[in-house]
Amino acid sequence: MFYEKDLPAEASATLTDHSTIFVTPGSTGDIVQPEKTDLEMPKSIWITMFAGYIVFFAGLIAATARDNGTIFVIIISILYTLIYFGVASVLFNQNRPEQTSLFARGLGPLATYTGSMDKGAVVGQVLTIPACLALFGVTMAIFRAMIF
Q: Where are the transmembrane segments (predicted)?
């Protein structure tokens, strides 16, 4: 979406009945969307995230998988997680960036809508849930081993 501040002074815009703005570029050249490469994370973050989910599901299986109903629910949860990340991966690969982001290469911060984030802040936000899930899975497995 383009805002008035993003348009060159010479450009003219017309509003249609469907609230779509058609821009006629002026002498400054065509307006193009910048490439979005900032969605990429370093592989170390992805590996750590998936390891957290694997530990969680392993702990869940070790602690609760004693009957067919429970195993079925755990399998559904695993499939849901795979679909969640799989669909995001497929959609991202539909229009891959031409180059790896500066953040993924370790050369700069992650640019977000509210400002830049360094690697520590990104790790804290992205890996908090997988780390807590992994801790929960291990705790459940330990409790199961202690009680039974």
A: 44-63, 70-92, 122-143
Digit-coded pLDDT (tens) for 89-104 = 888 888 777 777 778 8
Count how many Cα atoms sit within 13 Å of the Cα of residue 56 in the half-sphere of its side chain: 19
- For residues 27 and 77, membership in a common domain is answered with no
The answer to whether residue 74 is domain-embedded is yes
38 domain residue, yes or no: no
pTM of the model: 0.69
Cα–Cα distance, 137 to 122 (Å, whole number) = 23
Please, what is the angle between helix 43-64 and helix 128-147, to 10°?
Answer: 20
42 vs 104: CA distance, rounded Å: 4
- Report the pLDDT averaged over residues 124-130: 94
Count how many Cα atoms sit within 13 Å of the Cα of residue 42 in the half-sphere of its side chain.
18
139 and 76, same structural domain?
yes
Domain count, the chain: 2
Residue 17's domain comprises 1-33
CA distance 137 to 148: 16
